[in-house]
Design goal:
about 15% strand; 3 domains; 8 strands; globular; Butyryl-Coa Dehydrogenase, subunit A, domain 1; eight-stranded mixed β-sheet
């Protein structure tokens, strides 16, 4: 199963000859994270050290254009990085993936000059971005004030609130109700974050956050998130498939990470379905038919979802390259393909993180392996974005030609 991920990373690296090998850096980071992933996850401490390692590696700024002081990488590279890191530590992959999407959001919702200024500041400070602008999250209230605005309200969940240098949140304009993307410095007075209590993704530093008359400069209001027809350009609407593909790569990374660990375990430990025999396996390799069949089925599930992800990333990159020339129908096709991919990746993660443990047997329950964290991380993430909603949108598009609504994911 890791073969598919390696093929992706090798392809990306080859296309960036002469540049920084971000995939090599990501693999080193993943190797570093994997050495104590189970212990760190069980401890559940705020991932301050992990974020500092990401900062020092340069991975936090790789999506910022080189002319603005960043790594100048594209989304294909970013998705491969997220998937690589998530295979070692799903929660840190989650944190990093949301950082990339939120740090890119000014390009979708702010003007070019405005976005460029923010990106320069982000690169200079090596910011870690957190927050959340999900459509189902009740908006905060943004009220005009003498020197900008004041932000008030309570957000039930935001990624990275315990470690982020900047938060991007969804707020409603006072009196108009228009949803807006807003950049907030979490060190400002009035920002109070609480720890999360989920059974998975415990190192994503997520949790609730409250805003009590938090000052926001006018330049830190990006723009509208309104789903009303004609408000957002097709290019800005690409924010939805961009975020959904972050989710898909996260799911694939978690699934591939568990398969890699169970693969090593399965070759070293006799399958619980293998009749006991003092004789070794022929050729030294496991031959139990049930185990081989399950691994074969999971390989099909993983590779099918991975192939869909490749197609969706190709389509998204073409859409991003078209910029403001992109039309509504092209945007809809990209959005549907991203939803198909997210649904397939979500199902793959859930199936793989459940069934792979079955063939590993009772020994897989030992806390020394930490296999359970893969299932808990996958299930926690997929509960926030049920595949049923994506399937309804996909069916409506293929049956009726209805464009997917502008619904930003968690």
């Amino acid at each position: 199963m890791t073969v598919a991920a390696d093929e992706v990373t090798d392809e990306v690296t080859d296309t960036e000859a002469g540049r920084v090998d971000w995939l090599h850096i990501a693999r080193e980071m993943a190797e570093d994270l994997s050495t104590d992933a189970a212990e760190r996850e069980q401890a559940g401490r705020t991932p301050l050290d992990e974020v500092e390692r990401l900062r020092e590696s340069g991975l936090l700024t790789l999506l910022v254009p080189a002319e603005h002081g960043g790594g100048g990488a594209d989304w294909r590279t970013v998705y491969a990085v997220v998937r690589t890191v998530a295979a070692a530590d799903g929660a840190i992959g989650h944190l990093l993936g949301h950082h990339y999407f939120l740090s890119f959001s000014p390009r979708f919702f702010a003007g070019p000059a405005h976005a460029a200024r923010i990106e320069r500041e982000s690169a200079r400070g090596r910011w870690c971005w957190g927050g959340g602008i999900a459509s189902h999250e009740p908006p905060l209230i943004l009220t005009p004030a003498a020197n900008g605005c004041l932000l008030n309200g309570y957000q039930r969940y935001a990624t990275g609130v315990g470690v982020a240098d900047r938060l991007v949140v969804r707020a409603a304009g006072y009196g108009t109700g228009e949803p807006l993307a807003v950049l907030v410095d979490p060190t400002r007075p009035g920002v109070v974050s609480g720890g999360g209590d989920t059974f998975g993704q415990r190192l994503a530093a997520g949790g609730a956050v409250e805003f009590d008359s938090v000052p926001v400069a006018a330049d830190d209001v990006f723009g509208s998130l309104s789903p009303d027809e004609g408000v957002l350009s097709p290019f800005a609407s690409l924010a939805v498939p961009t975020a959904r593909l972050v989710s898909a790569q996260l799911c694939l990374g978690i699934a591939e990470g568990l398969l890699a660990e169970v693969h090593e375990h399965g070759r070293a430990v006799r399958s619980p379905w293998q009749p006991f025999s003092p004789q070794p396996w022929p050729g030294g390799a496991p031959q139990e038919p049930y185990a081989l069949t399950v691994y074969g089925e999971l390989a099909v599930v993983a590779r099918a979802a991975s192939a869909l992800a490749d197609q969706a990333v190709d389509a998204l990159l073409r859409g991003l390259a078209r910029g403001e020339d992109l039309d509504d129908e092209e945007c809809a096709e990209i959005a549907v393909l991203a939803s198909v991919t997210e649904a397939a990746a979500s199902r793959a993660a859930q199936e793989i993180t459940t069934r792979a443990l079955e063939v590993a047997g009772a020994d897989a329950a030992s806390t020394r392996h930490g296999f359970d964290r893969f299932w808990r991380n996958a299930r926690t993430h997929t509960l926030r974005e049920p595949a049923a909603h994506r399937l309804r949108e996909i069916g409506d598009y293929f049956l009726n030609g209805a464009h997917p609504p502008f619904t930003l994911p968690a």
